[in-house]
């Protein structure tokens, strides 16, 4: 029976771990990030992968940093045939990469060499891409630069958010790995070197990227809003207070006011001027210190004093 160590952290990785268990692989250990404080009350919370591993009765390791740790020594002592990672969140040290007979694999949520890095799903939507996918690759010491073994593409639908696409790609990744692993173990798999001339990056989302620039087109703002939904969520400011913008859509009408200006307030409609004489209708938002609400709820309550001509920054 093939033995392996699985490394992953977010919800994206859970179906992949579950599939490996169902397929009968001998999972020696599951490695995931340490429990982190979550929410306003800072409740120490296990990762989704840890929760699934405990449900499956699998041993869990949670190194803050893998290199030089006791957990690294434990993994090496297990002598797994193969190591599978999926959104683990740490670079693997060379000692780990070199140890398994069949190598270290990564399930990456993009069509490499496009979107190397930690936020490939977010960035593909923000950039307005119409297609993305999953790559199964050998791991290398350089970020997401290893040889490609297999890939599968899917369309990005116009209403897809990062949350929706995460769910879709986690299933695609699980299915693709299920198909690919037997070829690796039989040594019949493909191995394609990435074209460095086609490399693009998707670094972890910064606070600066979360802020809406109203000079953009309405379509670009729409892509930013859905690309940051449900985390970390796009935001703007109103009277120097942060306002999260959870959802909205480009308006069909054009306006010529300064960008960021409220150009329409009627019933449940909150429309803001963007660049290129376009406008964006905010339909779901969250003022600082408040719960998420519809534009109609906002205009009846917290935003009841908002007027046409007021400006989001």
Q: Would you mind describing this structure in some detail?
A:
By secondary structure, this protein is of the alpha/beta class. The protein folds into two domains: 3-198, 3-Layer(aba) Sandwich (Rossmann fold); 209-300, Formyl transferase, C-terminal domain (Methionyl-tRNA Fmet Formyltransferase, Chain A, domain 2, Roll), CATH 3.10.25. 26% of the residues lie in helices and 26% in strands. The protein contains nine helices and 15 strands. It has helices at 14-22, 48-55, 70-78, 94-97, 120-126, 162-185, 207-210, 218-227, 295-300; strands at 3-8, 26-31, 36-38, 43-45, 60-61, 82-86, 104-108, 131-138, 148-155, 234-238, 241-250, 262-266, 269-273, 279-287, 293-294. The strands form three sheets. It has a seven-stranded mixed beta sheet with strand order 5-2-1-6-7-8-9, sandwiched between helices. Strands 10, 11, 12, 13, 14 and 15 form a six-stranded antiparallel beta sheet that branches. A two-stranded antiparallel ribbon has the order 3-4. Strand 6 (82-86), helix 4 (94-97) and strand 7 form a beta-alpha-beta unit. Helix 1 runs parallel beside helix 6 (162-185) and helix 5 runs antiparallel to helix 8 (218-227). The protein is elongated and about 65 Å long. The model has no long low-confidence stretch (mean pLDDT 96).
